[in-house]
Write a structure and sequence with these properties.
alpha/beta, binds alpha-L-arabinofuranose, TIM Barrel, 9-stranded antiparallel beta sheet, about 30% strand, about 625 residues, single chain, 3 domains
Amino acid sequence: TLAVDAAGRGATIDRSMYGVFFEDINRAADGGLYAELVQNRSFEYDKADNASYTPMTSWAPTSLNGGTGTATVADDDRRLNERNRRYLKLDLARGEYGVANSGYNSGIRVEKGKQYDFSVFARTDRAAGTPLTVAVTDPAGKALADPLRVQVRGDGWVRYTGTVLARESSALGRLALTASGGGTLRLDMVSLFPRDTYKNRPNGMRADLAEKIAALEPGFVRFPGGCLVNTGSHQGYEAPNWERKRSYQWKDTIGPVEQRATNANFWGYNQSYGIGYYEYFQFSEDIGAMPLPVVPALVTGCGQNKATDDPALLRRHIQDTLDLIEFANGPVTSPWGKKRAEMGHPAPFNLTHVGVGNEENLPDEFFARFTEFRTAIASKYPGITVISNSGPDDTGTTFDRLWDLNRNAKVLMVDEHYYNSPQWFLQNNQRYDTYDRNGPKVFLGEYASLDNKFGNALAEAAYMTGLERNADVVKLASYAPLLANTDYVQWKPDMIWFDNQRSWGSASYETQKLFMTNVGDHVVPSKASATPATVASISGAIGLSTWATSAAYDDVKVTSADGAQLFSDDFSGDDSRWSKVAGRGSWAVTNGAYVQADQAAENTLVTAGDPSWSNYDFSVKATKTGG
Ligand code: AHR
């Protein structure tokens, strides 16, 4: 029975409550939302980004009618600029010779009748110039578009552009650049963009993906990460900005694309920074969402526990954050506001919130540094809400300590993250009912139930009713991660999936869309009675026993305090009730339908260090009652 107090008025729900969290994970940017079709366009791929890479990744030599030559990647003082170190050197011997790019996934996607903008930086040492042919072909060399002919002149870098009209549709396209006439032709920043980017922005977003995000009507866009921003934040700051493993720094991501040094992405691939801070702000504005950048606080999480003790480095990061606010909001006469205007946006981007720190899990070390950020931002920009964090888990010592610190210092908003089983989401609907109404507000910056099935979407929907009921405390919430390219997955589940030609929302996408496009004005109080009871209640000590080696488990038993057997599994039958849980730096399995030691109980860690089977008996103390 549902009792609805139709005249009653619960929490007011902000229009901006539900947003999206964009992180460059699962190739969400290059080969994803960033519409560039050429992979490794500036020949900067390096084994430091990914062990399988070479500077020629995604490129292969090609020729017409037996043409010959050599194609090598050079890194010398003829480079395009200091931040774009490498370029392609084509030594032309006989006939028509060059290279072809195979794009992302199965190839370069072109659609019959559509236009594509080609550009390249080139120079030639041949006095008469070098004819360059640009062709989009299938893998066998059959033309998919009319070829484009460019005459490269002079031994200085010049940007050449042209339009390619596709005559056929294919997802297997190759972009071939061939030249003839002898001599040496140098090429860099080879680019092919669909003319139809989202809102027709140059250097823009892939339309189908951007439209799927826009269709959610997000209240905010959190970017650029996640672990992407905080890991390594204390490393490589002083290194020249073409050096691999330099931490993610927003200043590296703005300005002309050919001057953005590519970098090693935390998730194990090269990031071009083609989508940089300007593009994030512009995209947020284009979809009517509030921009919400996150900067590192110099205490790493995401598998590392390290805090920098370099005060100069900390000051520099703080200054960078102040400069970021000026880049977003400052007048065009200010140094960073001027840069924004030069990139095409004289009007401010209206930044109101900044996250400092992502899952930074040394509470006291984090909070000391966070406080310095907060003080500096408050004194220069008192209107900006500075968001703190609560570590990587939904509960636990780190979480509690961070919350205490945040609460005591009257921080305005705290970022929470958790990835749990659907059962956890069903059982924790009331999580925020007991949060202090006068304490910091909650930004639920990352959450998902751990699969992409219908049941996950349903559990998330149930959980979101709890968020909404507590909209006076939970001010912002975003499912995570947002995007995944099917061929390059680092993290599942994800909200929107894609390859080089198609994209589709998961069941969780539909849940998000339902809530995000139907944000209410306020909660109408209601009560349900005769809710089906949970299957069992556990309290007190619980005994667990398992046979284990250092790599395997068998015969898992759970007994209650009075010795009754609550659960056992010898893995002789259906294992589908077990699911993988992403730990921080490791994986574990959980029987989601039953006790999860880290969520419903005090965590007990038993290390099975022996490669042969041994029996382990231990007990954990339940901290919550659940079924
Ligand atoms: O969303 C994927 C990752 O999960 C994020 O990078 C990190 O913040 C969290 O651990």
